[in-house]
Amino acid sequence: EALHTVEEQRQAIAKLSAPILQIWDGVLAMPVIGVVDAVRAEQMMEDLLQAVARSEARFTILDLTGVDNLDTATANHLVRIVKAVGMLGSRCLVSGLSSRVARTMATLGIQLGEVDTFSTLQAALQAALRSFQSEQATRLQSR
Q: E strands of the chain, at which residues?
């Protein structure tokens, strides 16, 4: 029973270190804190894809402010998460890349493709909101 309790606590901590937040209508954010290994990345992807599908989010912000180190495997997991979110029709924005993480990704040759990156979560949210406003203005002009 003690092992079961420890496992439940581990799962609860994992959920808290990568929560999924609806920060605006049509905008989800997943702030990631700590180390991302293969098991955790898989759980993050599953949770995020379910949330995107359920909410029909047009934007998903993957905030890596709380990630200090990144290895090749972790970077590849994050790239797969970004691609999977895009396949569901949500534009994935990556925020909070530290200079250390950016340098590591560049050194490893990890490319995020056409993903927009931002220094802060606030900057990513502002970009999403500008996109909403631009679309709204275009719709009004076409009427």
A: 21-24, 27-33, 59-66, 91-95, 116-118
